[in-house]
User: Fold this.
Amino acid sequence: MMQLKGTPQGDESLYLIASGYYKRGDYDLAATYFKQYYTSYPNGRLAELARLQSGRSLYMASPEARLDQTDSYHAIQELQIFLEYYPNSSYKEECNVMIYALQDKLAEKELESVKLYYNLGTYLGNNYQSCILTAQNALKNYPYSKLREDFSIYILRARYQMALNSIEERLTDRFRETQDECYSFKNDYPASPYNKEVTKILAHTKEIIKK
Assistant:
């Protein structure tokens, strides 16, 4: 690569080195060299492929959901930038598929946090409120996630637990919030496997409000 730098073969040699690291499974180095290519040769004949391969490399480097997701964030950013540069690229659909898969992974990690807050309950504070806020933010950040239903049921469960543990002055309001959440859930997910649980919570909530 150093010998060919500045020659007509310089950009190709850099791309081939990046491809070699990619095929060897060294995705971090591959991403580094692909990025070096499109930075050094922004109008090079392989610039589009280099940007795509940089995103692919970071996508491949993305770890399982329970681990740190820094690479996933970087991959999403790289793929989105690719789509901005090449909105009509033949690789557009592939990029979107990768982005959605990465977002699902990030959503899965958020769901683990939601479950943790819910399981902590009232330990050292109101973790149910943290459960609700985390789930609501996840729904906002990942609107097309396949985990939307799971986030929604935890919001409902947490509201119900907050109502059950409420002081007298706030009891009615919190059960009304739970009731509204039940109706919203049934409306959004009419065929949900959680509907039996939701129906039971709704019946108890109505009973408390009536009293």
Remarks:
- Residues 133 and 155 are 8 Å apart (CA to CA).
- The mean pLDDT is 92.
- The two ends are 80 Å apart (CA to CA).
- The domain at 62-210 is CATH 1.25.40.10 (Serine Threonine Protein Phosphatase 5, Tetratricopeptide repeat).
